Amino acid sequence: MSFSEPDPRVRVADEPRPTDVPQMHPPVPAQAAACAVCLTGSEVSRQDQGALSPQPKPGVEAGRFRTRTIAKVVRATTVAQVTAAVRAAGTDGSALHPVSTGLNWGLGSRSPVLDGATVLDLSGLDRIRESDIRRGYAIVEPGVTQGRLAAHLAGTSRIVNLTGSSQHTSVIGGLLERGVGLQRGRTDDLAGLELVLADGTTTRTGWWPGTAGTVVRPHGRGPSLNHLFTQSSWAVVTAAVVRLLPRPAAVRVLPMLLDEQRPERGVDTLREWTEKGLICPNAKIYDPVAARTYGTPGRYLAHVCLAGDQDLVRAATEIITGRLGDTKAGLTLGPEAAADRWVQQAYAGEADPHDTLFLRKTGHCARCIDRARGLLLFLPIVPFEGTAVRRAAALTRECLVGATTPPGITMNVLDSDALDHVVTLGFPPENPTAVRDAHRTLDRLHDAFAREGFTVYRTDIDHPLTPVGTGPEAVLRDRLERALDPHGVLARGRH
Ligand SMILES: Cc1cc2nc3c(=O)[nH]c(=O)nc-3n(C[C@H](O)[C@H](O)[C@H](O)COP(=O)(O)OP(=O)(O)OC[C@H]3O[C@@H](n4cnc5c(N)ncnc54)[C@H](O)[C@@H]3O)c2cc1C
Question: Where is the segment annotated Disordered (predicted)?
Fold first, then answer.
């Protein structure tokens, strides 16, 4: 289904209201829709281009991790089929590894951690079951992509919290990974989950319409269960209630260059502004490699998003640009092109069916990246302090093995204390030495950052998170796991 087509199965609970955000973006040029690999036709036939297959062949994924043997791939398009697959897995001994769109590039894509699993592909379970603009939620299935939900909300007074990844990635996949959106952490978007448990029963957690009052309150009353099932492999998620944000009347993303000699000064200023509430806790900082995407190579770049009432955005822009005049801030206004219309549009929650920013970042479209690009992600949390950012950059350089090129580092502000670092290692996937060196670099990053106390919060299939020791938390997790899935019907995951 194309992004612009309304989904006939969707019930919109109240009439979409026109937004006062001007639709300022002209149509995208057609050639932006595909990457060089698609355009040459060398990898994907023309017929394949309509539907995005989660992965071309089992085992081919961007990280070039050791290929896991997969018993089979089961595709489910209804909840009843998911239930049947779970019940079958309970008897045939091959654990199920559910994926939504399976585009978890750099962490293993759709590969399981252990050999012998059955991949349960839910990309065809793809209905937007309901959206309620007034109350601010949508009920989506695993195959619903963030681009499709954004397009569905076009012209309404609500937006979805888009991430910086491809528009073809799953809303539920991002939630379950506890990803980071442009507005806030994806965990804040989760209101409720529909689950198929390991014994084949169906249940729900969190808030659902018709339960616990009319106001969307993710924690409801009593024990709050949603996050037992994020970053866990204790159930198959067949739908989620996703909270929608009010569409801001105005959005302005200011590009700022950090002091060339001492970028940590700019980091500290951004922290101070975040602490004091001058800016929202969602700025992004790009190191000089990552900043290439935005046309400012060699410099640290920040994107500071001001959004809300038009007068407020205007006033905040004046205050902030005024403060940039102070050389102690360590920040100067960057070129307008460093936060161009595609950046502004993403923060405004607008769909881009051509995935322009993603193409720019990776050089490939979502369809080709697993085949054509070597990519590993390393995701530690680092204190939001200039000295810590400098230390993380130095550690990263020290870990590089062989000819591995310096990675791009994108830093997402989570709050005034924490910066999520996304370290992206690129390598030529056809060169075995480069692949080996990139993986050795990744191992070294895991060791070095752990020693520094900068722990990873999302990981890949070669570095599953292990419970911390044998303390009470590990015991509790073990008891929960045995209660929910005593026979290992669901494949043990990265978490
Ligand atoms: C250039 C680039 C930029 C990126 N930017 C961002 C960003 O800004 N923010 C961000 O958060 N991420 C970002 N990413 C990471 C990545 O693209 C996303 O996390 C992506 O959404 C995950 O793929 P998916 O949605 O297809 O999820 P999937 O691969 O389908 O799922 C991810 C994992 O969740 C579990 N899972 C999925 N579905 C189910 C289910 N239905 N039931 C039970 N378990 C399930 C499985 O363990 C699965 O492996 C970026 C990646 C790249 C390459």
Answer: 1-27
What lies within 8 Å, CB to CB, of 494 at 6+ separation is: 107, 108, 113, 459, 460, 461, 463, 464, 465
**3-class state of residue 432 by DSSP:** helix
CA atoms of 385 and 272, how far apart (whole Å): 10
Amino acid found at 334: G
Quote the tokens at residue 150.
Answer: 């954004």
- Residue range 41-56: average pLDDT? 42
Residue with CA closest to ligand 1 atom 41: 237
Ligand 1 center to residue 467 CA distance, Å?
A: 22
CA of 379 from ligand 1 middle (Å) equals 13
Residue 128 Cβ contacting ligand 1 at under 6 Å: no
**Overall average pLDDT of the 260-282 stretch:** 95
Q: Is 54 in the pocket of ligand 1 (CB under 6 A)?
A: no
The 3-state secondary structure of 450-483 reads HHHCCCEEECCCCCCCCCCCCCHHHHHHHHHHHH
Residue minimizing CA distance to atom 27 of ligand 1: 173
**What residues contact 222, with CB distance under 8 A and at least 6 apart?**
none
CA–CA separation, 381 and 378 (whole Å):
10
Domains recognised in the chain with CATH numbers: 1-27+57-247+464-495 (3.30.465.10), 250-348 (3.30.70.3450), 373-458 (3.40.462.10)
- What one-character-per-residue DSSP string does 59-92 give? T--TT-PPPPPEEEEEE-SSHHHHHHHHHHHHHH
Express each pLDDT in 350-399 by its tens digit: 999 899 999 999 999 898 999 999 999 999 999 999 999 999 999 999 99
Q: Which helix (H) or strand (E) holds 242?
A: strand 236-243
